[in-house]
Amino acid sequence: MTLLKYNSGLSNLENRSFSNFLDRFFNESFANVNKQVQSFSPQVDVAESKDEFELSVAVPGMKKSDFKIDITDGRLVISGERKFEEKKEEKNFHSVETHYGSFQRSFYLPENIKEDKVEASYEDGILKLVIPKEEKKELKKTIQIK
């Protein structure tokens, strides 16, 4: 049994032709596998509590050494690369939906964070960054009208 991914992006004319569907499936599904340089954008959840910000980046199948995290001038940059590794055993891929290649996500940080206290961990395919806030700085200021 072969499972085919439903693609709602097909126009009505293309939906009518099963032959066109098969052509697109076999011509486009494997085009991404053989590209050496490709990019993708992993999904990121950003949460805030009273004491910290927390970013969770969904990047399964990577190693800790595949990531680079920098903070420069109040900008957090998370980058990395997921490589497609074909093993020696013969396999015929019918579909590859996992994204491979390099990625970079950037976030402007507020002024009230402790840049030197940022912690990162990677577990179960989630890169988690904990960014503590400074207690003294307050970003909200009420301005009195004169």
Automatic annotation (TrEMBL):
<protein>
    <submittedName>
        <fullName>Heat-shock protein</fullName>
    </submittedName>
</protein>
<dbReference type="Pfam" id="PF00011">
    <property type="entry name" value="HSP20"/>
</dbReference>
<feature type="domain" description="CS">
    <location>
        <begin position="39"/>
        <end position="144"/>
    </location>
</feature>
<dbReference type="InterPro" id="IPR008978">
    <property type="entry name" value="HSP20-like_chaperone"/>
</dbReference>
<dbReference type="InterPro" id="IPR031107">
    <property type="entry name" value="Small_HSP"/>
</dbReference>
<comment type="similarity">
    <text>Belongs to the small heat shock protein (HSP20) family.</text>
</comment>
<dbReference type="InterPro" id="IPR002068">
    <property type="entry name" value="A-crystallin/Hsp20_dom"/>
</dbReference>
<feature type="domain" description="SHSP">
    <location>
        <begin position="35"/>
        <end position="146"/>
    </location>
</feature>
<dbReference type="InterPro" id="IPR007052">
    <property type="entry name" value="CS_dom"/>
</dbReference>
